[in-house]
Amino acid sequence: MAHSTKFEKETERETKNLIRCITGIEDEDDQNYQMALKFCWSNFRFHRFLDVDSHKVQRSISGIYEKLMIHSDLSKAESWRRLTEEFLSSPLPNTDGTKTDVHHSILSLLLLLSGSPSNTNFTERPRVKEAEKEDNFDWAKYLMEGEDIDNGPYPDTPVLHIWALHICFSTIMLFLNVMIISVIVIPVGEPDARAWLEQHVVTPYWVAHAPRFPHSLHLHSNLLNVWDQHLYNSDPLYLPEEKAFVTETQVIRETLWLLSGVKKHFIFQHHDGKVSVRNNVVVTHLTSNCLRSVLEHIAVYGQAVFRLQRFIDEVTGYSSEPSPPGSSSSHSSKKGSEPPFRTYQAFVWALYKYFTSFKEELTTIEKELICKDETVTLSGVLERLSPHLAQIKELHKVFCTGVAEVPPETPNVVRASHLLNTLYKAIIEYDSVGEASEQAVALLFSLWTETVRPYLEIVDEWIVHGHLFDPAKEFIIQRNKDVPVNHRDFWYATYTLYSVSETVENDEKLNDAASGSSGGDQGSSNRQLTMVSFLKPVLKQIIMAGKSMQLLKNLDCKEAEQSERSSRDAERKSLYTLFLESVQSRLCRPEDSPSDTVSEQQATKRSLIKMQSIVAQHLQIDDVHDPLLAINFARLYLEQSDFHERFSGGDFIVDRSSQSVTCQTFELTLRSCLYPHIERRYIECCGNLMKTLKKDYKLLEYLQAMRNYFLLEAGDTMYDFYTAIFDKVLEKESWQQLSFLNVQLQEAVGQRYPEDSSRLSIFLETIDPARKKQPVNNLDVLTLSYKVPWPVDIVISSECQKIYNQVFLLLLQIKWAKYSLDTLRFNDLTEATKKLEGGVAEEVTVKETINQQIHRMCLLRVKLMHFVNSLHNYIMTRILHSTGLEFQHQVQEAKDLDQLIKIHYRYLSTIHDRCLLREKVSFVKEAIMKVLNLVLIFSDRWQAGFGAWKIESIDKMESDFKNCHMFLVTILNKAVCRGSFPHLESLALSLMAGFEQC
Amino acid sequence: MASAANANMNAVRETMDVLLEISRLLNTGLDMESLSICVRLCEQGINPEALSSVIKELRKASDSLKTSENCTN
What we know:
- Chain A: GO terms for molecular function: gamma-tubulin binding; microtubule minus-end binding.
- Chain A is mainly alpha-helical.
- Chain A contains 39 helices and 9 strands.
- Chain B has helices at residues 2-25, 32-43, 48-72.
- The longest helix of chain B is centred in the C-terminal third of the chain and has 25 residues, at 48-72.
- By secondary structure, chain B is an all-alpha fold.
């Protein structure tokens, strides 16, 4: 098994060599390379060809011979025969014997590859002669190559070398300067000069067939030659390659240049953003494989540096060379016309700062290398750079996931939040590892704090000045331009919150109507990681504060307040500064704490004693004398306060440098350093807005006005209005005239609330005739409207007014019923009897029936009155009044406008529900309406006087009322028994009482 | 022992030279490196017909790849 694996490995290696040789693809990760490899393997393993038949091969050989003869290519035919015979009788590297199957298979391969023999005829003719010749490769010279000392490496003048150097490495000025100055100082003509130059000037190793440099003859310095010799001796198929010899110093220097971002090298090559190692570069003291593996390791970092550098150049708009049009990325091409994308700029700035320090380190190493004071080896340099290299790897990883993998044409908001999220997640990830990754966390944290700067500045600008300044559209919340501030939709439709879905990588728009009110907590599971994670806990506060601030800015605040604010603004620290300061202080605090541990303990003891006495006093007040209990209480309190301190104050132990943060503290850091500032600002902004709205814009007064007119809390005023209508109805006059209604309303309101009279108006709506059948529905045409000025109309919107209006109509209907029952006079009936008495006095029986009827009417009237009064009481006191009190209380406590709007809506929906206006309980309302209707019919008949109705109609009214009443009592009782509607209890009870008396 | 091995080595080297000449005569387009790879593969028992078809295919593919690259440039 082991053999077969080894065998397979060899075959695989050879296959790879074959692919490389034929296609020229060097990179094994290349997609084409992988495809080719797969193709080869499948062909080698699963082919349908027969094994080689030696006779067939022989026949083909003689066939070709014949063909050549026919073409009178005698010399070629001769050499063909001779060569094949010679080959068949020669040994093969790993096969014993001659004329084996392997010989034949090789020949057959060549025959197969040869294609048509006619082609061979034409092209091969001049080579036939050469074929006879022996190979003229000078092996001896090759093998001696490492041994001889070239004493004339500089056939040209040194100045030319300098020029070559200059052309090749124009960017490495430091090195050049040293060289040029040195050359100038040493006069070339002197005999020492040449020796000096040989020591100090670099051989142009970058040109083809460069002269070799002198080096020691010691075995250690010639390891490559020794190894080559060994290979040549052990492997007959080994082919020596053309090699470019360099020294280790040159390798180190090129490594340093590569890492500092220089693009043109000899040892390292750039191909479309990929860095690879030149094939044939060798040093004399290492085998090429060994050197290659080390250099490839470096090339990976070089590539990372190169990509990061290119990104920096793209964003800053600096390009050292004109890049081909295809490779220029989308955001660099967009540059100029579009506003700068600040998040990327900040990220680049952070990267740039890192690279500056990294390059300083590289320069130090290079200076040491130039000084030659101590031995600098490649492994030594790599060792020294290893922490930096690890960081570069980290940066590159973050860059790849955060920036490079984002598809082009992605909107900036997605790019920015993706980058911030990537950094955030990386920090959290390393943070959880703990001490082991302290370096990485420190680096990423500094990167994050830089990158987050534009975001925090945008937030700051927004929540302090009420102006969302985001020209590049990178912030997760964006202003909808088409909604002006003084529009009633401002609060809902002004901002769009972008939520980036991690999985599908496309952005969804959530309209602010939802997001503004519920902010961060709209969490369906796939949106968990969506928006910029670090802002998520305070997103709602930010939105609220920002909107409030913008609104506040547009309200006419008092002058004094504004000037005060502007003077304060000069001294104000921005959110970002505050955040940095908090982080700084949080990181510095633990350093001084260990020194006062002893004193702290003493303080704890002292406070324990103090606390004990306090608790003891408290217990004494309650007549409890138990010192042990007091001590335990005291300890409990102390522990709690201690815990509180630890939680909020950031009691983390390890000492660290100013920028290093680790160990489960990142989120805590945010919680203690960033969120409180936003929170504070939120409370301030929203508090101000609420104050202004309540004080300067009389929000509470408007809410009261709504209740006054729509919920009839201003009883006397509204009484004047509706009784005028009811009287008109009573007199059977037409009341549905706009002018009449408005005049009545203005008269009623103008007396007591002159300021509201201009705002109130009444409209008539045409309603569908199907609903108009019942007399009680006549009132449905009325629509009361109250013009609410901006900005109060954000709270009291037209939707709210609609609900208010529904309640208003219901109240009006009840009032109408009540009024028409109240205004009935007994005279109307008694007069009729008197009339009867006067006419036919002798008919006693008739008289009795009349009295009976009148009596029944009176009874029915009382019953109806009881019902209507119960309903009226229930709605006016139990529902509207008590709910209104609750509402007023809540309004006082509302912290922000959103909350206020919510409270208002909740209040409206509550009264809407409790007035039984909901669709779900419409059957109850129907029943009530029926009774109210009955009341109207009843009063109509009553007023028509005795004789206008028949006995049957009284029966009908009685039974109708009874049915409705019974129905309502049953339904309400059920609801009350279930306990789901406790407020219905009073209505149910009073209706029941009325019912039992029947 | 060493000299015997050396002699063998030389013999093999000569074989390869002969083979290279044959390959040139047949205009297979193989150079020394690819030829030695092919010899090794044949020795490892890879079917010559399969090998030849693979080589042809690879040549074809890389040619088309290069032309397409040239076009884009």
